[in-house]
């Protein structure tokens, strides 16, 4: 049986070599024993596992399929076959940097026309990755973060003013929409000294619309083959070109304004570092074209995922009044009657941070990352992989693996992140920021920003949800709650500083 399938595998691999899409390496080419890995039943010749598949929610689809097929499985759409991994043991192996590294494939590779060799989309071997990483890493140091804190507070103040207005009018707030305004303004102002004026607009800034268009297009290219694209989605390529041109044009204006003002290094922000700083040992600088790619990368990567993380956290707070009360009590205890916290008071909100971690566990807003073999190896002792073969780690299922998180893994419970509970778990089971050398450079930035904003909002409001709302999650490479609106009640000054629950 195994031998027959193996011959099939070889024949299909031969056929695929001829048709494979440039830049996409099908699982057939790198996994000699692919037949050992289960795939959904009802596979259709040429078309693959498309019965019942959703183009709009491939991640949630994969989650459903993964639960049925187990910790490693494969899916095929047309000529593309992908191996998915979510079991904690296998994912821990893939985190081993001596055997595996980031694979730039699928959605990440589809973003190359926009983000080029910017940090997120650079291939591991591209010299600009190390160069930009070394130049920009100090922009995420503790000292740099302390410098961004007052600007983060300014933007949070704008959000509070907007929400006060909505609550006075008795209107609910559009959580993902407003969190996107907040996080876009925060990265634009702290990183690039640019003000998009998002809170002065009733509709999303065109930058956000173009970005969502570009991300959605990159996601759809994973499932719709290029030849069928024009048939299935007429006009999509043209719209994508327009979105990219808009994003590039915006970035060029931001950079041009700084060059005109004179990039003296006085801002001390990411853009100053890109324009002014030479590599500490080689003296090399980023080229103008690479700066363009880095700016677009940071404007997109620096806000979309944090906005989703904040939105999911607010959703869970509104659904769990006990958690909300405990978080509010902590804010009162740590911040006292200080209206706006100092930098170091943010990290002291340990329970609020657990709320955030638990939200990122259930809905990691960057829901997957890809890893490729550095040399021939065997995954889990049974799945040989050739050098360059890769797998997609499905973070959302890894974060719900019952063997690690228990039978109640689907339940929201911030206490899972109490230090003792964290110490009791194996490493590499919580990976919302990716892994290894290519893990998220903005992790501390995102965590500081999100904890600060949650603290400020918890102090100011009680949140309640429409009881009929059921969480729906939109996918555009990232995850975002869809249609989430909350009702706000301003808290009294006495309630804001009541340190103990029920005090
Ligand atoms: C909750 C918020 C965030 C989440 C969940 C998140 C998640 C991730 C993940 C999973 C990766 C690795 C992707 C891969 O392996 O292919 C990554 C990389 C990256 N992220 Fe984030 N991110 C967040 C916030 C941010 C922020 C605020 C910034 C910038 C200010 C940022 C900038 C980047 C960059 C530049 C990379 C590429 C790093 C490299 O390869 O050197 N991210 N992020």
TrEMBL record:
UniProt cross-references to CDD domains, sorted A to Z: CYP120A1
Keyword terms: Heme, Iron, Metal-binding, Monooxygenase, Oxidoreductase
Keyword flag Metal-binding: yes
Matches recorded under PROSITE patterns: CYTOCHROME_P450
Family: Belongs to the cytochrome P450 family.
Protein name from the UniProt record: Cytochrome P450
């Amino acid at each position: 049986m195994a031998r027959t399938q193996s011959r099939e595998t070889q024949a299909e691999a031969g056929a695929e070599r001829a048709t494979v899409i440039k830049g996409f390496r099908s699982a057939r080419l790198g996994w000699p024993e692919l037949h050992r890995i289960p795939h959904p039943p009802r596979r259709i010749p040429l078309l693959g596992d498309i019965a019942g598949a959703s183009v709009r929610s491939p991640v949630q689809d994969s989650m459903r399929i993964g639960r049925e097929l187990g910790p490693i499985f494969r899916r095929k759409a047309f000529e593309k076959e992908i191996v998915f991994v979510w079991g904690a043991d296998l994912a821990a192996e893939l985190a081993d940097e001596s055997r595996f590294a980031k694979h730039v494939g699928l959605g990440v590779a589809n973003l190359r026309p926009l983000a080029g060799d910017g940090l997120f989309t650079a291939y591991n071997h591209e010299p600009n990755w190390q160069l930009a990483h070394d130049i920009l890493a100090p922009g995420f140091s503790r000292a740099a973060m302390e410098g961004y804190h007052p600007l983060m507070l300014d933007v949070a103040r704008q959000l509070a003013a907007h929400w006060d207005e909505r609550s006075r009018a008795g209107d609910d707030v559009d959580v993902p929409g407003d969190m996107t305004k907040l996080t876009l303004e925060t990265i634009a102002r702290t990183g690039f000294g640019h003000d998009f004026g998002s809170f002065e607009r009733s509709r999303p800034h065109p930058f956000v619309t173009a970005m969502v268009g570009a991300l959605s297009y990159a996601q759809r290219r994973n499932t719709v083959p290029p030849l069928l694209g024009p048939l299935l989605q007429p006009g999509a390529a043209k719209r994508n070109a327009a979105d990219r041109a808009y994003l590039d044009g915006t970035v060029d204006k931001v950079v041009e304004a700084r060059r005109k003002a004179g990039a003296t290094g006085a801002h001390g922000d990411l853009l100053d570092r890109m324009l002014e700083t030479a590599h500490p040992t080689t003296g090399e600088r980023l080229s103008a074209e690479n700066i363009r790619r880095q700016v677009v990368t940071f404007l997109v990567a620096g806000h979309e995922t944090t906005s989703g993380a904040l939105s999911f956290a607010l959703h869970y707070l509104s659904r769990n009044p006990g958690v909300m009360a405990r978080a509010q009590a902590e804010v009162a205890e740590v911040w006292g009657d200080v209206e706006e916290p100092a930098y170091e008071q943010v990290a002291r909100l340990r329970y609020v941070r657990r709320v955030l971690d638990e939200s990122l566990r259930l809905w990691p807003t960057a829901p997957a990352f890809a890893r490729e073999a550095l040399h021939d190896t065997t995954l889990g002792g049974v799945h040989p992989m050739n050098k360059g073969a890769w797998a997609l780690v499905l973070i959302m299922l890894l974060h719900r693996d019952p063997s690690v998180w228990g039978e109640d893994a689907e339940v929201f419970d911030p206490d899972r992140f109490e230090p003792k509970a964290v110490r009791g778990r194996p490493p590499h089971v919580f990976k919302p920021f990716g892994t290894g050398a290519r893990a998220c450079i903005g992790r501390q930035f995102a965590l500081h920003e999100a904890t600060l904003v949650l603290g400020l909002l918890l102090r100011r409001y009680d949140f309640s949800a429409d009881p009929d709302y059921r969480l729906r999650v939109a996918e555009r490479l990232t995850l975002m709650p869809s249609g989430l609106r909350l009702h706000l009640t301003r808290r009294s000054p006495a309630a804001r500083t009541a340190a103990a629950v029920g005090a």
